[in-house]
Specification:
Helix content is about 40%, strand content about 15%. An 8-stranded mixed β-sheet has the order 3-4-2-1-5-6-7-8, sandwiched between helices. It has a 6-stranded parallel β-sheet with strand order 11-10-9-12-13-14, sandwiched between helices. Helix 9 links the parallel strand 10 (about 255-260) and strand 11 (about 285-290). The protein has 2 domains: about 5-195 and about 390-400, Glycogen Phosphorylase B (Rossmann fold); about 205-390, Rossmann fold (3-Layer(aba) Sandwich). It contains 14 helices and 14 strands. It is α/β, with parallel strands linked by helices. About 45% of the residues are buried. The radius of gyration is 21 Å and the shape is globular.
Length: about 425
């Protein structure tokens, strides 16, 4: 297999950033893990992301042959991804100075795609693009979100899908949506899901010991969720469902554990909204709200939980879902987006319309009351991860697409 040089383009998301901080989420894990596994296969990977002026080094090697390069553009501060467009020409120009034309470009999200399109016009690069999220679907899920600048984003996505050599969709459903909504020929769309490190995320041998270490009660059913403090993640829906749940009779003692937010000013409005809901629903001691957890602590929190919830209004895939499943923890996930391609409802987890609060609460109650079903779902979820979602397998599927002819090759499956 030939050795390649890859340029990963991800302006808004630093793959070495602290997961859960503003605009640092599953996409960053995806890029970091994919890059490190490509590097293990003797390829060179450079990841170009925006320097947020957080005091981090301009160049940071995190694995042999895998380096993050932080590029200055715009004001020296955090800028939400929706407001990055005016600064992307400067970003592209600075990245262009780093390239020699022999790299394979792999862009991520619409901002990375926009930059890669500029670079493609200035050199002879092969170019692949991973969506991570689809503007038209997000607009349908959050139609009142003027701050998301849908017109700009959707226009850029259309240009990116038409201009790149291959689009990488995360699921078969997403492939069909890109084809239907953006008129992209299906033969130009490869389907490759994210992966998970199943050696790091694995069932714990002693859940009680983990709970004692984390200060969690042994006599409660622990319902765990985490993510960025962002309305798209649906934590308000989770708290509303939890509020409905605690009013039900003879429910086993239940503790909802939410990890989200790091005190950033950008999160304040959403935080206040969630605090109001928790107070109105009288969640009190039934809710423990933790700040963003260190990534190294996540396997213990997953493993200490009885149940994981992914309450997003729309979720392109949901790497945290895979992490929970790898830890042998049953999952209740949104039925909007990627989780439906992984979870078989009633066999390996539950899918629910999280905007239907009563149905959401019913799903929670079902698993809270049924430890045998939780155990079965957890075991089947772990098996699903082991069979199809290791990063070694996922990196190999990417290499097959990278090395295929520019147009017209079938999916790498």
């Amino acid at each position: 297999m030939p050795s390649h040089r890859f340029a990963m383009i991800t302006p808004h998301g630093d793959p070495l950033g602290r997961i859960g901080e503003p605009d640092i989420g599953g996409q960053c894990i995806y890029i970091r893990e994919l890059s490190s596994h490509l590097a293990k296969a003797d390829h060179e990977v450079r990841i170009y992301t925006r320097d947020r002026d957080e005091g981090k080094p301009v160049r940071e090697e995190f694995a042999a042959n895998a380096t993050v390069i932080r590029v200055r553009c715009g004001p020296a501060q955090f800028i939400p991804k929706e407001e990055l467009l005016p600064h992307l020409p400067e970003f592209a120009e600075r990245v262009r100075a780093e390239l020699d034309g022999g790299e394979i470009l792999h862009s991520h999200y619409w901002d990375g795609g926009h930059v890669a399109g500029v670079l493609r016009h200035q050199g002879d690069h092969r170019w692949l693009h991973t969506t991570h999220s689809i503007g038209k679907l997000k607009q349908a899920a959050l139609p009142d979100g003027a701050q998301y600048r849908y017109d700009e984003r959707i226009g850029i996505e259309t240009e990116v899908y038409r201009g790149c050599d291959r689009v990488i969709a995360l699921t078969e459903t997403e492939k069909e949506q890109i084809h239907r909504l953006y008129d992209v020929p299906v033969e130009r769309i490869a389907v490759i899901p994210p992966g998970v490190n199943e050696a790091v995320f694995a069932p714990l041998p002693d859940r009680s010991a983990a709970r004692k270490e984390l200060g969690l009660p042994n006599d409660a059913v622990i319902v765990f969720t985490l993510g960025r403090l962002d309305e798209r993640k649906g934590f308000d829906l989770f708290l509303e469902a939890a509020g409905a749940l605690v009013q039900r009779n003879h429910l086993p003692r239940t503790l909802c554990v939410l990890s989200a937010g790091d005190g950033a000013a950008e999160e304040e409005e959403e935080r206040r909204k969630l605090e109001r809901i928790a107070e109105q629903r009288k969640l009190g001691d039934c809710l423990r709200w933790l700040p963003v957890l260190p990534e190294a602590d996540l396997p213990r929190y997953y493993g200490a939980a009885d149940l994981f919830v992914l309450p997003s209004r729309y979720e392109p895939f949901g790497i945290v879902m895979l992490e929970a499943m790898a830890c042998g923890i049953p999952v209740i996930a949104t039925d909007k987006g990627g989780p439906a391609t992984v979870i078989e409802p009633g066999d390996s987890g539950l899918l629910v319309d999280t905007t239907d609060i009563d149905a959401f609460a019913d799903a929670l109650e079902l698993l809270i009351r049924d430890p045998a079903k939780r155990r079965d779902f957890g075991e089947r979820g772990r098996k699903i991860v082991e069979e199809g979602y290791s990063w070694e397998v996922i990196a190999g599927r990417h290499l097959a697409v990278y090395e295929a002819p520019a147009r017209g090759e079938p999916d790498a499956r």
